[in-house]
Design a protein that fits this description.
The chain is mainly alpha-helical. It is built from 17 helices and no strands. It is globular. It starts with 62 loop residues before the first helix and ends in a 25-residue tail after the last helix. Keywords: Membrane, Transmembrane, Transmembrane helix, Transport. One of its GO terms (molecular function) is transmembrane transporter activity.
Length: 496
């Protein structure tokens, strides 16, 4: 008689890799939700309910098991591990953004190009990092699933440390291109958080106006852009050392598994992960969210710099810095203070839709701010700007929501790194073309003078509305109603 496809009918136990750090993967031997409750059995059989080995049939949890579950739920959060992961995650964005303050001047000087050609090479060199990163992202995810999270992360951090420092030693365009591609090769396993190195760390070509003793050294006279690259590389190196020394591995190895455990099913292929129920939809929503965020990030500084007559705010460098600082502090406050209780109260899906529903109004505020300045309403402008920026920064909670949705929709904890690799591949592809596309569109709108130069904001509003529609298709398994009571005396059942 043929065996049933359901492992619970054949007396089999399906296991997966065990994780101990929630930021890297689920904490149980089967796919779990962030609150520790097991996911319902997945149609592909990779997250089945454990069976009693003596009776070969499902059995209710014993008193000892209940006590063990309670002890597991009371386990304190691994704060040090989470902080180490946060610090390690700084390496990739530092490597990506550290060249932005000086790349134009570097290309102009070392490339011996006319000023009109600098923009093309700048866009090419900036994009190469993300293009190479995108090509290797899935490879890093699969390697992390097979070899372990820690060795892959440390390898990536070490490589990106060296590659970032090397960029400042480039003496011509092709060396810059190769150094940038080299950095992208090692950026495949680091979670993206935006940051940048101050432009003042690049030594000026006129050493009479150099800010410090470093720039007077003969070495930095020959390589004036090396200091900024070395500082960025050093920061990446410190995260490498911290990860190597203090970070704990979270993927259970074969030697750590009990000899009595049955051989686990082979891991899903990348295509099987990609076509698992709900995964394509969540990846689409994730990509749409990142697309809107990157488009806004590219346009916002340009809008602040542009003259009032052309649809901008005519901000000085200092005002732009204050704007960015206030936005950063506001986003951090929303994420640290607002997100946890709101997510417990609303659930992931509802909070995501609430954030996205506000985004069209947030985008619409920018042309309004320009019109206030254009018509001389300065008090109204400043009175509107800061509340809009502080409250509007709350839309950043959507980033955490889509990340939780990715974790929830993963078919198994054993392929969680692959799911995240797919998401980061999408993100890298978007990051490779979105800034150039939207800054060019902004320039076209200003050149045409359409709607007082506000064409870009109408496009962003349309993108935000489309994202809101997409969010209504979020799979039920990714709604994330963790804080809601369960129906049934044994703690199982649908969330209310």
């Amino acid at each position: 008689m043929a065996k049933s496809a359901d492992p619970t009918q054949n007396g089999e136990t399906v296991t997966a890799a065990t994780e101990s750090t929630p930021l890297l993967s689920a904490p149980e031997s089967i796919a779990t939700r962030p609150n520790g409750h097991a996911k319902p059995p997945h149609p592909n059989g990779h997250a089945a309910k454990p069976l009693d080995h003596d009776t070969q049939s499902p059995s209710p949890p014993s008193e000892t098991e209940r006590e063990g579950d309670a002890e597991e739920e009371e386990r304190p959060m691994p704060t040090l591990q989470i902080l180490l992961l946060c610090y390690a995650s700084l390496a990739e964005p530092v490597a990506y953004f550290s060249i932005f303050p000086f790349i134009n001047e570097m290309i102009f000087r070392l490339g011996d190009l006319p000023e009109s050609s600098v923009g093309f090479w700048t866009g090419l060199i900036e994009s190469l990092f993300s293009l190479v990163q995108m090509a290797l992202m899935i490879f890093y995810g699969r390697a992390a699933d097979r070899l372990g999270r820690k060795p892959v992360l440390v390898f990536s951090l070490a490589g990106i440390s060296v590659a970032t420092a090397m960029f400042g030693l480039s003496q011509n365009l092709w060396q810059m291109v190769l150094a940038r591609c080299f950095a992208g090769c090692f950026a495949g396993s680091v979670v993206t958080i935006r940051t940048m190195i101050r432009g003042s760390l690049a030594c000026p070509t006129d050493l009479n106006h150099a800010p410090g003793a470093f720039c007077h050294a003969p070495f930095f006279a020959q390589f004036p852009y090396a200091l900024a690259s070395f500082v960025a590389g050093a920061l990446c190196l410190t995260s490498t050392l911290a990860a190597q020394i203090f970070l704990k591995e979270t993927l259970q190895t074969a030697a750590q598994k009990s000899a009595s455990d049955p051989k686990p099913a082979p891991p899903l292929t990348t295509w099987e992960v990609l076509t698992s129920p709900g995964v394509p939809t969540v990846l689409l929503i994730f990509g749409h969210t990142m697309f809107l965020a990157l488009a806004y990030t590219a346009v916002s500084p340009l809008y602040q710099f542009t003259s009032i007559e052309n649809g901008g705010l005519s901000f000085s460098d200092a005002q732009i810095a204050v704007f960015i600082a206030v936005a950063g502090v506001s986003q951090a406050a929303w994420m640290l203070i607002g997100f946890p209780p709101l997510q417990r109260w609303l659930g992931t899906g509802r909070l995501l839709r609430a954030c996205v529903a506000f985004q069209p109004f947030f985008m619409a505020a920018y042309p309004l701010l320009n019109e206030l300045r254009r018509h001389g309403y300065e008090k109204a402008f400043w009175g509107t700007l800061w509340p809009t920026l502080i409250i509007g920064s709350g839309v950043a909670m959507s980033f955490a929501c889509v990340q939780l949705a990715l974790n929830d929709i993963s078919p198994s904890s054993a392929v969680l790194a692959t799911v995240n690799a797919l998401a980061l591949t999408v993100n890298s592809g978007i990051r490779a073309f979105t800034p150039v596309a939207f800054t060019s569109l902004y320039a076209v709108g200003v050149k045409w003078g359409w709607a007082d130069g506000h064409l870009i904001w109408f496009v962003l509003i349309a993108v935000a509305v489309a994202l809101y529609v997409d969010c209504w298709f979020l799979p039920k398994a990714a709604e994330g109603n963790y804080g809601r009571k369960k129906v049934g005396g044994d703690g199982e059942g649908e969330a209310r």
